[in-house]
Write a structure and sequence with these properties.
The complex is a heterodimer of chains A (438) and B (273). Chain A has helices at residues 2-28, 45-55, 67-76, 89-97, 117-126, 162-168, 192-205, 211-214, 218-221, 227-240, 252-257, 268-277, 306-316, 319-329, 337-342, 344-352, 357-362, 385-396, 401-437, and strands spanning 32-39, 57-64, 84-85, 101-102, 131-132, 135-136, 144-156, 186-189, 244-248, 263-267, 281-284, 290-297, 299-300, 332-333, 375-376. Chain A has 438 residues and is an alpha/beta fold. Chain A folds into two domains: 21-147 and 294-366, D-Maltodextrin-Binding Protein, domain 2; 149-292 and 387-396, D-Maltodextrin-Binding Protein, domain 2, CATH 3.40.190.10. In chain A, strands 7, 8, 9, 10, 11, 12, 14 and 15 form an eight-stranded mixed β-sheet that branches. A three-stranded parallel β-sheet of chain A has the order 2-1-3. In chain A, strand 1 (32-39), helix 2 and strand 2 (57-64) form a beta-alpha-beta unit. In chain A, helix 7 packs across helix 10 (227-240). With 273 residues, chain B is mostly helical. Chain B folds into two domains: 2-56, no CATH class; 60-271, MetI-like (MetI-like fold), CATH 1.10.3720.10. In chain B, 78% of the residues lie in helices and 1% in strands. Chain B has twelve helices and two strands, in the order H-H-E-E-H-H-H-H-H-H-H-H-H-H. Chain B is globular, with a radius of gyration of 25 Å. At the A-B interface, helix 1, helix 3, strand 9, helix 18 and helix 19 of A face helix 4 and helix 11 of B.
Chain lengths: 438, 273
């Protein structure tokens, strides 16, 4: 009987285990599946529901915070079946170089003509030397643009004049105008690519770059990684540290909105969002130039549902859907102005969000000039460990004065304690001696 | 050959035959859990640390020690850990002592644990907002405050248990024999409470050296801790160096545990909670 009970227990346990593993698979088998892997806060979630309803499909939606985390997932687990990913330009380059993504047949996308053609030209011009399994490839045939934006400086007009700020360029992050109020109120991105770019361009602004880099075109300079540049950037970052409030990735917008910080390196979408919340804020890409980036949809080689993935991309390119996403996300949609203007639904979305259509498209922060040669793209650094090590060294640079103060005060306390101890001891001795002398 | 297989199969059969529900059977699920979530990750950590390009190598260790900032960060974390632990003892001991004397002590101890029931991220974030509202600049000071605030219950609790378990008749006997209260404390109560202090130290020191969330919230620019460093390494897919750093941290944990147990002679175990 006991044995029977024992095996029963084991069987129940085993069956339970199998059920637990299999249940999701069994339940989901009925519908078409689409696995989407996107940036956090990078879509209007209602749009997902709309797509599910329209195409009778079940979307598994998961998110990542940085390109590096996404690359880690994709590169290490090659068996994961993800149908769609939305990485940034340089991450797409790395995925392409590792043969992780498939070409996209754009002829199957009915809305592909909605994509702003300047984006495609710009991206293809930058990534002109890409190869996949030996053959020369165009970047644009591997991804469909989704959003884009710039990296620039967000600042508070109450403490810095517009003219002063734009004159200072990246120098504002180093407080070159020497404004007292800014000390300890500057935020730096804890993201090495953006930080490195700002450091390099700050050096360029101040003519601190060695001669051979000075004549280098911007698009080449920001994509150069060597020991000499790393050392130069390291010194300016260590120098910047005393001015900083914090290294941040996503808390910066709140700090700027609440006026707890006055200057920050920011992405244009975050900047636009913060400026909507607080009218004292303003944003610029320094005149010397800066980074423009593009995020887009790619289909991994081992995607299971490539047809549905294409339908999803096509859906994202519908002007009204694109505007819904743009409203939710805050960055600039890759769907061109002309396509939005002819779509009544898209205009309604804009008006519902209290945007004047002409004003919306005239905003140069939202719609930077794509033909501006000073707005350049980042290329992938296949081995960025030297850069990472530099960033760690910068962060590990510490001011140890507090330790000396601590040791000093401890020693002081010990001295006082000893003094009190001896005084009491002496007093006691006297008390003992007194009766004897009587 | 055939007999061998027969032998083995008979052995297995007898094992199955002899299977009984004993108390140990109920431990199997946990043993399974232990294998999957404790032993396996450790093995993976070791593999990551020592295998570079499918070959056994010490390259990751060399990388770690050559890169000055990592060792510096480790030392800084240990220093922060020691300061936090000392502060926790200095603040926690008197509280635990007084509470063990009061009959309502149990209730008041509850008040000290109460903040622990709030999620520590929420707690730490609110601490940060508090500092910002007062206008204190985030830095090493606020970091240590956050650590002490978060970990002091782990010091008070074992201390309180040990102190209230000490037989009162010991100190009564001491004062009967003419010892003044200070002497009684230093000669009787304090030595008897050392197991509590030791288990408090293990429970405060080890989490503080590996913390990373608190330093990110409360540290400002100047407190990049060892935990943060490991976190960055893994985020940038430097699994080798990251694993080496985790192992080094583990070694420190083992060392401190060893010393604690050696001085403790196993007394603290029952006093833990």
């Amino acid at each position: 009987m006991k044995r029977f009970l024992g095996s029963l227990c084991l069987i129940v346990f085993a069956v339970g285990l199998i059920m637990a593993i299999n249940v999701p698979l069994v339940a989901g088998a009925a519908k078409d599946q689409l696995v989407v892997y996107n940036w956090a806060d990078y879509i209007d979630l209602d749009v997902l529901d709309e797509f599910e309803a329209e195409y009778d499909v079940e979307i598994t939606y998961s998110i990542f915070d940085t390109n590096e985390i996404m690359l880690g997932t994709i590169m290490n687990d090659k068996n994961t079946s993800i149908d769609l990913i939305c990485p940034s330009d340089y991450a797409i380059e790395r995925m392409l170089n590792n043969s992780l993504i498939d070409e996209i047949d754009t002829s199957k996308l009915t809305n592909y003509s909605n994509v702003n053609a300047s984006i495609i030209t710009k991206v293809d011009d930058t990534f002109e030397d890409l190869t996949d399994s030996g053959a020369n490839k165009k970047m644009s045939s591997y991804f469909v643009p989704y959003f884009y934006g710039t990296v620039g400086v967000l600042y508070n007009k109450k403490h810095v004049d517009k003219s002063v700020a734009e004159e200072a360029g990246y120098g504002l992050l180093w407080n070159t105008p020497n404004i007292e109020a800014l000390n300890g109120k500057i935020l730096m991105k804890d993201s090495i690519r953006e930080a490195y770019l700002a450091g390099l361009l700050y050096l360029k602004e101040n003519d601190k770059l060695p001669e051979k880099y000075e004549s280098m075109p911007l698009s080449k300079l920001i994509n150069t990684l060597d020991d000499e540049l790393i050392e130069l950037v390291e010194t300016v970052f260590k120098d910047q540290k005393r001015l900083l409030k914090e290294y941040e990735v996503d808390t910066g917008k709140n700090y700027m909105e609440n006026e707890e910080a006055y200057v920050s390196l920011a992405w244009s979408g975050d900047a636009l969002y913060a400026m909507e919340q607080n009218e004292n804020l303003d944003y610029y890409v320094p005149s010397i130039g800066g980074n423009i980036w593009f995020d887009g949809w790619v289909i991994p080689k081992n995607a299971k549902n490539k047809d549905m993935a294409l339908k999803f991309i096509d859906f994202m390119l519908r002007p009204d859907i694109a505007m819904k996403n743009a409203m939710a996300v805050g960055y600039t949609s890759a769907v061109k102005e002309e396509a939005v203007r002819v779509s009544e639904d898209a205009i309604t979305v804009l008006e519902e969000n209290e945007f004047d259509v002409d004003e919306f498209f005239a905003d140069t922060i939202r719609y930077p000039d794509l033909d501006n040669a000073n707005l350049v793209l980042m290329r992938d650094f296949p081995d960025d460990s030297a850069l990472l090590a530099m960033w760690e060294r910068v962060k590990a640079t510490r001011d140890y004065t507090w330790l000396w103060i601590l040791i000093g005060s401890l020693a002081g306390a010990a001295l006082i304690g000893l003094a009190i101890f001896f005084i009491i001891k002496n007093k006691k001795k006297r008390q003992v001696v007194e009766p004897e002398s009587n | 050959m055939g007999t061998k297989i027969k032998n083995i199969s008979m052995k297995i059969a007898s094992r199955i035959k002899n299977f009984r529900i004993t108390r140990s059977v109920f431990a199997y699920p946990y043993v399974l859990f232990l294998m999957m979530f404790v032993i396996m990750p450790l093995v993976i950590l070791l593999i990551n640390a020592f295998i570079v390009n499918e070959k056994f190598s010490f390259e990751n260790f060399a990388n770690f020690f050559n890169d000055g900032s990592s060792v510096d960060t480790l030392m800084f974390s240990l220093l922060i850990g020691i300061i936090t632990t000392v502060l926790c003892i200095l603040l926690g001991y008197p509280v635990a002592y007084i509470l063990s004397k009061w009959s309502s002590g149990r209730l008041i101890v509850l008040l000290f644990i109460l903040p622990m029931w709030v999620n520590f991220l929420i707690r730490t974030l609110s601490t940060r907002f508090m500092f910002e509202a007062i206008g204190i600049k985030l830095g090493v000071g606020t970091l240590i405050f956050g650590l002490v605030y978060n970990y002091i219950p782990f010091m008070i609790l074992p201390l309180h248990t040990t102190l209230s378990n000490i037989d009162k008749s010991f100190s009564e006997a001491a004062s009967d024999l003419g010892a003044n209260p200070i002497n009684t404390f230093f000669k009787i109560t304090f030595p008897l409470s050392i197991p509590g202090i030791l288990s408090g130290i293990t429970m405060v020191f080890i989490p503080t050296i590996s913390t990373f969330a608190i330093s990110q919230f409360l540290g400002g620019t100047s407190s990049h801790l060892f935990g943060d460093s490991i976190n960055t390494k893994f985020e940038h897919q430097l699994y080798g160096v990251g694993s080496v750093m985790s192992i080094i941290m583990l070694i420190f944990v083992l060392i401190s545990n060893y010393f604690m147990q050696k001085t403790n002679k196993g007394e603290a175990a029952r006093n833990l909670w």
